[in-house]
Amino acid sequence: MDDKYYTLAEGCPFASNKTAVMMRGGRGGQGGGLGLLQDTQLIETLAHFSRERIPERVVHAKAVGCYGEFEATRDCSDFTSASFLNKTGKKTPVLQRVSTVGAESGSADTARDVHGWAMKLYTDEGNLDWVFNNTPVFFIRDPIKFPSMNRSHKRHPQTHLPDQTMFWDFHVGNPEGIHQLMVLFSDRGTPKSVRFMNSYSGHTYKFTKADGSFKYAKIHVKTQQGIQTFDRQEATKIAGENPDYMIQDMFEAIDRGDYPVWNVYVQLMSPEEAEKYEWNIFDMTKVWSHKDFPLQQIGRLTMNRNPQNYFTDIEQASFSPSTMVPGFAASADPVLQARLFAYPDAARYRLGVNYQQLPTNAAKVQVYCPFQRDGKMRFDDNYGGDPNYVGSSVKPTKFYQDLKGSDPGTLSLHTDHEKWAGEVSAYNSEITNRDFVQPAALWEVIGRVPGHQDRLIDNLASTVKDVKYPELRKNVYSLFSRVNKELGLKLQERTETSIKAV
Ligand code: HEM
Predict the structure, then answer these.
(1) Which residue minimizes the CA distance to atom 12 of ligand 1?
(2) How far is the CA of 320 from the centre of ligand 1 (A)?
(3) Is 343 annotated as a binding residue?
(4) Residue 143 C-alpha to ligand 1 middle, in angstroms?
(5) Where is the active site (predicted)?
(6) Ligand 1 atom closest to Cα of residue 117
(7) Rounded Cα gap, residues 269 and 206, in angstroms
(8) What is the sign of the dihedral through the CA atoms of 458, 463, 468 and 471?
(9) DSSP states of 246-273 as a string?
(10) Which of 16, 216, 236 is nearest to 108 (CA)?
């Protein structure tokens, strides 16, 4: 045993485990007594316990997390000035958090849901967060719909139950999500574990260079363990038997040294190609053809270290698409633009205004940001007496480009590359027949795997049967008929038969 001993949080030695101090006597005898306000040990212990929980994330509350590394598999300086990609073999430490989306922190990992895939790359030019999903497309393209969409996937405001009527009512009324629904109700909607799934940026981002040029990019993270999925029945069974299945699978794999690996690819598109492309590249309900824009490998991701403490390493982690490094930038996808605001805002609410100082979020390079000071739970030296205003000649500090010698502005995260001129107007996310072209193609691809189309219909029917209103069910069948007539008909047949059978 070392010299360590228990203390209160301020250092006063903790007397013993059974020292609730009582005023004994009276009728209490040996067994009872009146508590005293002077019993600091008791009061501290109880008061801190009541404050152990912090707000859980409003979405993506349930997760598994770990650490690892990203290794650049090629020098990417032909399309980006990002330092972590400028040399073959360069390694960057990574924090990964993979989550379900809709349900609470205690919910089942194997529930049919999109899985979030957040990574913090602690690069030598500051942190880069890649906040992805395990699906390449999304339910909406107008960010104002995000809270509505998520509420319809959560609990009913009156019954407090998950509610299929609400779920399908949202999706019938906002049918631009049809592509994502096709993915979600396919086999990919119930992955076997984190190790056996891919993740995707979904959004178009930009890789930028110091000369002002840029390429649009989508990023793909592909499992080297192979895609593996549960069927609906297996997923439901495991949800009951072991709701933490994925957390356990990942923790134990890393613990026994069976480190999971993903290859990281990009699809690149020039601004000229984007102008002519048949799809709006700022619409995340669409993918880019791999034939036209082939995957190019840029790196490899290996996860090899479990958290030392779940709360400090994973729960206190905060990820945001706005956390970027020189050479990587946001595109004009309106959903992405809204996300740039939403995540730091959520972190300030959930963790406090100095969340960037928490060890798991802190950059591993020097941080000198004296224009962001004070605030609750500031726990560094707060830049001492350094000027807290810009433009000081008393104690000037260099800018990065003064050290690096590049042109001013080119290392900036702001997009000097694009010129925008236009009118302020409301965004129109109404659907057209074109929105069904990619889902229809996906239906054909699904058809190449024996039994997969049937499983998709079965997965859909198992939820549509719980929609209360026949008229709404009919609207669901019509929605899927627009993807493929046979799909719509079979879904109707399967659902209505199972309702009659009850
Ligand atoms: C308008 C669209 C969206 C909004 C407003 C939004 C907002 C949020 C918010 C508020 C959180 C909780 C953050 C926290 O408490 O720390 C969150 C988590 C997350 N979101 Fe989104 N989101 C949007 C779309 C997306 C999309 C398109 C993706 C994937 C491509 C995505 C991936 C994630 C992931 C992976 C997390 C969990 C991050 C973590 O592990 O801490 N979200 N989102």
Answers:
(1) 57
(2) 8
(3) yes
(4) 11
(5) 60, 133
(6) 35
(7) 9
(8) negative
(9) HHHHHHHHHHTT---EEEEEEEEE-HHH
(10) 236
Nearest CA to ligand 1 atom 34: 116
Q: How far is the CA of 165 from the centre of ligand 1 (A)?
A: 24
Cβ of residue 130 lying under 6 Å from some atom of ligand 1: no
Q: Please identify, by atom number, the ligand 1 atom nearest to the C-alpha of residue 143.
A: 1
| Closest atom of ligand 1 relative to the 341 alpha carbon | 5
Domains present along the chain, CATH in parentheses: 1-52 (4.10.91.20), 63-358 (2.40.180.10), 433-501 (no CATH)
CA distances from 305 to 47, 72, 252, 264, 374 (A): 33, 19, 11, 19, 33
133 is catalytic: yes
Please indicate whether residue 221, judged by its CB atom, sits closer than 6 Å to ligand 1. no
Question: For each of the chain's 502 residues, which pLDDT tens digit applies?
Answer: 689 999 999 999 988 887 788 887 766 556 678 889 999 999 999 999 999 999 999 999 999 999 999 999 999 999 999 999 999 999 999 999 999 999 999 999 999 999 999 999 999 999 999 999 999 999 999 999 999 999 999 999 999 999 999 999 999 999 999 999 999 999 999 999 999 999 999 999 999 998 888 999 999 999 999 999 999 999 999 999 999 999 999 999 999 999 999 999 999 999 999 999 999 999 999 999 999 999 999 999 999 999 999 999 999 999 999 999 999 999 999 999 999 999 999 999 999 999 999 999 999 999 999 999 999 999 999 999 999 999 999 988 888 877 776 554 455 555 555 777 888 888 888 999 999 999 999 999 999 999 999 999 999 999 999 999 999 999 999 999 999 999 999 999 999 999 999 8
Please count the other Cβ atoms lying within 10 Å of the Cβ belonging to residue 2.
Answer: 4
State the catalytic residue, choosing from 133, 198, 354, 361.
133
State the catalytic residue, choosing from 60, 115, 171, 203.
60
